[in-house]
Amino acid sequence: MQHGQVNNGAHSRRNSNHLSDNQIDEALRCWAQRTGLAQNDLAALQALPFTCRTVERDGFIVREGEQPTSCSLILSGSAFRQKVVHNGARQIISFHFACEFIDLQSCLLGVNDHGVQALGPCTLAVVPKVALLEVVQKRPSLALAMWFDTLVEGAIFREWVVNVGRRNARARIAHLLCELALRQSPETREAPEGTIVRLPLTQEHIADATGLTAVHTNRTIQTLRKEGLISLSLGRLVIHDWKALRSIGDFNDAYLHRQASRPQRG
Amino acid sequence: MQHGQVNNGAHSRRNSNHLSDNQIDEALRCWAQRTGLAQNDLAALQALPFTCRTVERDGFIVREGEQPTSCSLILSGSAFRQKVVHNGARQIISFHFACEFIDLQSCLLGVNDHGVQALGPCTLAVVPKVALLEVVQKRPSLALAMWFDTLVEGAIFREWVVNVGRRNARARIAHLLCELALRQSPETREAPEGTIVRLPLTQEHIADATGLTAVHTNRTIQTLRKEGLISLSLGRLVIHDWKALRSIGDFNDAYLHRQASRPQRG
DNA sequence: CGAGCATTTGAGTCTCCTCAACCCGGGTGG
DNA sequence: CCACCCGGGTTGAGGAGACTCAAATGCTCG
User: B3-138 architecture in CATH?
Assistant: First the structure.
């Protein structure tokens, strides 16, 4: 059925907006680099029929309980995964930034077991899951890249279980901030000390991500601030003492698998 | 480079023991069914050079920090994933039972970010990761099955984040027991009420899985027992009132994706 | 200037933790 | 055959971290 390679040229695939086309290509390139994808596989991705979409703050990208039909790649902005429990409390499960696919699980899982919302205003590139699945089925190395991405995501979930399960408020928050700072500063493996990290988080988001209440989160953040470890005000995080914060949060970046020895593929 | 199909016949692949050969084939068949794998892909899996290994209670299957060279499939017994935090406390991240691969992440991630130990005595089928990777790269539908397995695992991790993050002791334990009971009773989607579930868990395991202390876990289990909801003594769990326990634990089995609409493949 | 949201502060409470002792059944060795 | 030990379970008392409820502050935006 499927003949030859991907398709013909990336320039005919989307409607009009060349600006967003560039953005999509760039985001895919970034994703491909992180997952160690080869050039021709990247091209196959770029040839997919992405469409752009913008979501305002707190807008839903994925709704719990629905059956997904597409996958979304973040072009700009950030988003968070969340689940709501019986009494109405919310648990945030992960944060996602530019150049990340948010819902690859849509490809193979029948129903969304959680929701995803935009943290701030967010632009997305959306591709029908059938299109993505099709190319993945043709290209094993692409399938491995997807699998790899999902594995890293799983590793982060595991660390989050540990974070909310076995650390106190101070450590939980420190750990979260370490992770976010590191993931936001792409290439630098070490110590995002002193750099300003754009994080449109409210303290309530932090509370929901760490399994704490907003009030207690507030008090805990204040002590971190008073100790001169961090600055954290609306939308901006600065870590003044990376080593101290890392130690408080019991943070070890191995679980992020930022330079996993990904075996040859493609 | 890679010519033709898998290899030649499954009967020449392992040393001697026909009994364990059967066990391996059976476990793989079971896994293939769960992931919706087609017959020829299953055959390719069965042709891999698995070797058997037994691990005694609490023995390590995967060690944190090491570089994995193989993947393990549980033939009998059960295992748990765990991470240790700075102060020495342990968090259990998941439990695994027969016919499950425990460390598929070994295939693509460079270093183990957590450990896996046998819960009780455990027999494993071990395959070199390079062999697994090779066949996966040849067979896209197999890659998708691996990916699917990892996605479901990730969904379970997410629910665990919610469990330890946003539920009280009573609900956490109820939720955990619901999950374990359901996963242990394979085909039945509904209500493992009254059936005996073999679970070689100590209360300390339950505590470490739910982010509680052993003492508090003990007290909480006692109230569940006194209310006639469960029986739980060394190695045996019986759920007497499934609906009640499910309600207490805020348990919704959707996240297990037991009958996910897996798209056509293979 | 007021509305609305995020943050901050206070006071009282409760869940869950800590430390410690004790019980109990099974296995081992003298 | 009994004494002992050991791991898991149980119980008690006290304490602390985190929660709840409530109100006040500050900030941004219309």
Answer: Sandwich (2.60)
- A260 reaches B (C-beta below 8 A): yes
| In chain B, domain spans | 3-138, 166-261
Report the alpha-carbon distance of residue B98 to residue B76 in Å, rounded: 5
Please give, rounded to a whole number of angstroms, the shortest distance from the CA of A218 to a CA of chain B. Answer: 17
CATH number of the domain at A166-261, please? Answer: 1.10.10.10
Hey, are the CB atoms on B165 and A210 less than 8 Å from each other?
yes
Each residue's pLDDT, cut to its tens digit, for chain A (266 residues) gives 344 333 333 344 444 556 678 999 999 999 999 999 999 999 999 999 999 999 999 999 999 999 999 999 999 999 999 999 999 999 999 999 999 999 999 999 999 999 999 999 999 999 999 999 999 999 999 999 999 999 999 999 999 999 999 999 999 999 999 999 999 876 666 667 888 899 999 999 999 999 999 999 999 999 999 999 999 987 899 999 999 999 999 999 999 998 754 444 43
Whether residue A147 and residue B147 make contact (CB cut-off 8 A), yes or no, is yes
3-state SS of chain B is CCCCCCCCCCCCCCCCCHHHHHHHHHHHHHHHHHHCCCHHHHHHHHCCCCEEEEECCCCEEECCCCCCCEEEEEEECCEEEEEECCCCCEEEEEEECCCCECCHHHHCCCCCCCEEEECCCEEEEEEEHHHHHHHHHHCHHHHHHHHHHHHHHHHHHHHHHHHHHHCCHHHHHHHHHHHHHHHHCCCCCCCCECCEEEECCCHHHHHHHHCCCHHHHHHHHHHHHHCCCEEEECEEEEECCHHHHHHHCCCCHHHHCCCCCCCCCC
Please, are residues B35 and B262 in contact by the beta-carbon 8 Å criterion?
Answer: yes
3-state secondary structure of A36: coil
Q: Per-residue pLDDT averaged across B134-143, rounded?
A: 95
pTM of the complete model: 0.92
Label residues A125-141 b or e (16+ Cβ within 10 Å = b).
bbbebeebbebbbebbb
Which bases in strand C are touched by protein, i.e. have an atom under 7 Å from a CB?
5-11, 15-20
**∠ CA A28-A30-A32, rounded to 5°:** 65
Report CA B236 to chain centroid distance, whole Å.
Answer: 18
Residue B37 has pLDDT above 80, yes or no: yes
